[in-house]
Amino acid sequence: MIGKLTGRIEYRAADHILIDVRGVGYLVFCSERTLAGLPAVGEVAALYTDLLVREDLMQLFGFTTLAEKEWHRLLTSVQGVGAKASLAILGALGPDGVSRAIALGDWNAVKVAKGVGPKIAQRVVLDLKDKAPSVMAMGGTVAEALGEQPAEVVETPVKRKAPAPASNASAQSEALSALSNLGYAPGDAAGAVAQAAGDAPDAETPALIRAALKLLAPKE
């Protein structure tokens, strides 16, 4: 099983890249969001990968975080959701957005992905709602995947893109852990944290915990 690749991007297409790893070229399919965040041709990138093997097909799919990879695995386990639909959902929402939509039961958010209709969107939310807490808890564990390159690769001098704004995935993970330690059910805690993070995307852990606790407080 190929779980991670680090190498130089040889070329980019609309839905995949060719990445050269020590002289071996790998075609890796990615979501639009992931492709947009990768460096330019000639630069080094690191991707977690998932290998699809069928009788007549072998394809690699690439992800910049373990949470994105795990959501892809879970999404493709839902009846009617193939790899193309999974990448469309991740491309439209990102892993944090998928976590938030599923934790909140917001199938309308899932439906915005190209090629995903209402029935499939509802099935995704219903089938994966209990999985949201565990994937959200993965936030902040994969910083080493971004910008990592092997020492023997000499990078071609090219202008780099400005780094993408950091998400608060780590803060969500820490807030979820804190609420779980306080005795809240994983599903309830995940829903509250997801809603709080949606209201304040840049909030740090203490602010997320306070906002989530307000949402979880009994309504008078």
UniProtKB/TrEMBL annotation:
Region (Domain II): 65-142
Record-annotated Holliday junction DNA helicase RuvA C-terminal domain positions: 171-217
Source domain of life: Bacteria
Domain DNA helicase Holliday junction RuvA type: 1-62
Keywords: ATP-binding, Cytoplasm, DNA damage, DNA recombination, DNA repair, DNA-binding, Helicase, Hydrolase, Nucleotide-binding
Subcellular location: Cytoplasm
Gene Ontology annotations for the cellular component aspect, listed alphabetically: cytoplasm; Holliday junction helicase complex; Holliday junction resolvase complex
Keyword Membrane appears in the UniProt entry: no
Residues covered by region (Domain III): 167-220
InterPro entries, A to Z: DNA_helicase_Holl-junc_RuvA_I, NA-bd_OB-fold, RuvA, RuvA_2-like, RuvA_C, RuvA_C_sf
Spans annotated as Domain I: 1-64
Record-level GO BP terms: DNA recombination; DNA repair
Entry-linked SUPFAM superfamilies: DNA helicase RuvA subunit, C-terminal domain (SSF46929), Nucleic acid-binding proteins (SSF50249), RuvA domain 2-like (SSF47781)
Alphabetized GO MF terms: ATP binding; four-way junction DNA binding; four-way junction helicase activity
Main location: cytoplasm
Protein function: The RuvA-RuvB-RuvC complex processes Holliday junction (HJ) DNA during genetic recombination and DNA repair, while the RuvA-RuvB complex plays an important role in the rescue of blocked DNA replication forks via replication fork reversal (RFR). RuvA specifically binds to HJ cruciform DNA, conferring on it an open structure. The RuvB hexamer acts as an ATP-dependent pump, pulling dsDNA into and through the RuvAB complex. HJ branch migration allows RuvC to scan DNA until it finds its consensus sequence, where it cleaves and resolves the cruciform DNA.
Quaternary structure annotation from Swiss-Prot or TrEMBL: Homotetramer. Forms an RuvA(8)-RuvB(12)-Holliday junction (HJ) complex. HJ DNA is sandwiched between 2 RuvA tetramers; dsDNA enters through RuvA and exits via RuvB. An RuvB hexamer assembles on each DNA strand where it exits the tetramer. Each RuvB hexamer is contacted by two RuvA subunits (via domain III) on 2 adjacent RuvB subunits; this complex drives branch migration. In the full resolvosome a probable DNA-RuvA(4)-RuvB(12)-RuvC(2) complex forms which resolves the HJ.
Matching HAMAP family: DNA_HJ_migration_RuvA (MF_00031)
Family: Belongs to the RuvA family.
Comment field on protein domains: Has three domains with a flexible linker between the domains II and III and assumes an 'L' shape. Domain III is highly mobile and contacts RuvB.
The protein, known as: Holliday junction branch migration complex subunit RuvA
Organism whose genome encodes this protein: Sulfitobacter donghicola DSW-25 = KCTC 12864 = JCM 14565
